[in-house]
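User: Please fill in residues for this 313-position structure.
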């Protein structure tokens, strides 16, 4: 077990749970690291059996964010319910979950990460792209709805106005916010809600190769699953997931242009108005940064908007 796992007592706490799941006491629990130096980073543990073979993954909330794993599990369940059995099968259900000293944890089945080798990664991206984009279109169509009650003001007008006034935002993003807000007030585009993952990039795409898993029997490219759902929203904003996913896969302008047009048709607008939907998503993010540094938001948002504009040319 890693020093961090031992020091925080997770190995001892999870031992019984893992014994029940594996049918025998686990072997090592290896800290996989998060790649993020933050107090609220979730502890990610690779669970090995007594023979040393990988058997499962355990996620444990940090003291600074004790409900993070529980929130991820709850929002993943809500997303599965909203999508239905077929579309929702890309969201992995935990094998077990619970809490220790107020800090939540869960155990996930063993899933395959994508290759880190350059050539293999390129091949995998090309194989996965059609299936991922097709799923995202269908998920958007399944969950699209009009805002109700106070939502147009709370979820769209107020965040857009705040973005326009946000000095830390790039000028191009503020100008886009002004255009989106003016178009909204003039009725030039109609706001919509969709299911939003909120961190949809290749790092959160894994492959479920379990012979008894819900994706069993499908071609390799259709056995993908999506993880890391704590920031997801059932009534989120369109286009952001598409632009983040496209950026992480290095999607070309022609393919992205076609995907934008497909999402615009689902939203009932033209591709030009789809830009306003994206900017509204970025405005909402700006108003709910939580632990995200403002400079990271500014950089990510500017990249998404630039990617959209390049595809639209």
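Assistant: Residues filled in for all 313 positions:
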């Amino acid at each position: 077990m890693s020093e961090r796992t031992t020091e925080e007592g997770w190995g001892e706490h999870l031992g019984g749970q893992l014994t029940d799941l594996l049918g025998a006491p686990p072997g090592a629990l290896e800290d996989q690291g998060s790649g993020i130096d933050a107090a609220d980073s979730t502890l990610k543990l690779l669970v090995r059996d007594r023979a040393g073979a990988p058997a499962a993954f355990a996620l444990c909330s940090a003291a600074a964010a004790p409900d993070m794993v529980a929130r991820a599990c709850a929002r993943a369940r809500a997303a599965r319910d909203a999508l239905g059995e077929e579309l929702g099968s890309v969201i992995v259900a935990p094998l077990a979950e619970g809490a220790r000293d107020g800090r939540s944890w869960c155990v996930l089945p063993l899933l395959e990460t994508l290759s880190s080798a350059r050539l293999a990664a390129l091949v995998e991206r090309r194989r996965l792209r059609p299936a991922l984009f097709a799923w995202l279109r269908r998920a958007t169509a399944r969950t699209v709805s009009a805002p109700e009650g106070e939502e147009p003001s709370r979820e769209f007008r107020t965040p857009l106005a705040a973005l326009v006034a946000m000095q830390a935002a790039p000028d191009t993003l503020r100008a886009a916010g002004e255009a989106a807000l003016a178009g909204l007030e003039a009725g030039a585009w109609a706001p919509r809600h969709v299911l939003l993952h909120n961190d949809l990039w290749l790092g959160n795409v894994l492959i479920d190769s379990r012979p008894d898993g819900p994706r069993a029997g499908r071609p390799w490219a259709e056995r993908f699953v999506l993880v890391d759902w704590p920031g997801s929203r059932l009534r989120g904003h369109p286009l952001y997931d598409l632009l983040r996913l496209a950026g992480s896969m290095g999607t070309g302008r022609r393919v992205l242009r076609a995907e934008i047009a497909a999402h615009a048709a689902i939203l009932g607008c033209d591709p030009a108005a789809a830009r306003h939907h994206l900017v509204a998503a970025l405005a909402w993010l700006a108003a709910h940064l939580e632990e995200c540094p403002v400079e990271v938001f500014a950089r990510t948002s500017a990249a998404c908007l630039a990617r959209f504009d390049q595809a639209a040319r």
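For context: The beta strands are 29-31, 43-48, 54-60, 96-100, 103-109, 194-196, 205-207, 224-226, 233-236.
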